[in-house]
Design a protein that fits this description.
- The structure is a single chain.
- The protein contains 14 helices and 19 strands.
- It is α+β, with helices and mostly antiparallel strands.
- It has two domains: 191 residues, Creatine Amidinohydrolase, Chain A, domain 1 (3-Layer(aba) Sandwich), CATH 3.40.350.10; 248 residues, Creatine Amidinohydrolase (Alpha-Beta Complex).
- Strands 6-5-4-1-7-8 form a six-stranded mixed sheet, sandwiched between helices.
- The chain starts with a helix and ends with a helix.
Length: 491
Amino acid sequence: MIRILFTVAAIFAANTLLAQESDLPSDFLSKDWHQERRAKLREKLPANSVAVFFANAVRNRSNDVDYVYHQDPDFFYLSGYKEPDAVLLIFKDKQTANNGTQYDEIIFVQPRDEQAEMWTGRRLGDRGTKERLGLEQAFNNKEFKKYNVDFSKFSQILFTDFENDVRDNPRDSSDLYDLIAQFKVKVNYPSKDKMALSPEPVKNNLNTRGLYSIMGTLRGIKTTEELTMIRKAVSISCMGQREVMKAIKPGMSEREIQGIHEFVFKKYQAEDLGYPSIVGAGHNGCILHYIDNYKPNITNKEMILMDLGAEYRGYTADITRTIPVNGKFSPEQKQIYELVLAAQEEAMKVTKAGATFQELTFATQRVINKGLKDLGIIKSENENHRYYPHGCCHHIGLDVHDNGQYDRLRENMVITIEPGIYIPENADCDKRWWSIAVRIEDDYLITKDGYEHLSVSAPRKVEEVEALMKQPSALDDFTLPELEKIIKKEN
């Protein structure tokens, strides 16, 4: 019986890669795309340099349960590898191995492990990384300690400094903790004590700042393949907003509204959320990054601010809509809402390649400040106030606040425009404006002469929102038994 079990296990291990292939979607970015991204990075690296990327750490959630793993965006961008405990090196120039082989990139990945894969899922291993991701120089991470390259010969070693806490798994001598420790030895990474005690700056070839800007020039300009993923993420997120507009009713909870959005995301095969969902009713909308979503009973007179983005194949949308829970804006809600909408549309007028991010922000601020003054909420257009406390634009992509250049807009950037007004309780204005919070956020592809409004399918104008909210929802007849009655009956 034992022999049979081991034979079955061996067959299972041998076929896991084939099984994984059949279980996965077919629209991931191709290995050729990732290879081309590595070539583009190599072009931008300084002379005689090497760039080093580490996979994201596994983060503990509670006791023996970890958070769902999410790869470092740069690591994914360059490799397509989505597992932890890995390191990728990309060289400006060809290197020569001991056996005479020349290479300009090398990756060390977690090895196949039958026991571990039974618990936490399939692994590519070095062989799978070569076959699936096209990285010819792929080795198990246990080989990194023995990897013999003279780092002192490079003019620059570019990497992101180690500021995150990384746990050591004492049962694994090649986890991320050990890979970092081994790298520090290889490059003579100075200890904080050494830097503090040295009377002069410690001289070395370590560059912990340059990689972010280099990657920003790459990631900030989207390729055709990336735009396909972003369009899908945006369309899914818009559909979530539309379905909630039809389904929402007074008495629902913030968490229930969040659940409808996220159900729609999953229904369309989005793997994840691009960021924690923000669903704030009434005064909760005044908390910019409100993620508690606890309010159990949203009332008839409130608005609800919903800032959510689906993540599709690693790329995220970022869309916000603010709607009246009862389906009809009150006069005060409508005035604030249309002021925010006017600010967004003013920024859209100057949105094109060559415009600056600052120009877009100033456009929204001018409209909002004048509008707040005209409504008597502030006394002067030049008054410092807290009702619009954030900028209006940022890149989106592999991160919701994606890496990219924040000077001028360039063709094939994807950005948000998201003005907002947030008037908290006890604000220094007439009480009728209290607890009104509005943010309208849309996603735009920058073109040579203007923009493409990617999230146009989620209604923005007052009449469009109110009209959609009158339509029936597929969830109208979806009811669950009252939990309290079930509990009483069972007890």
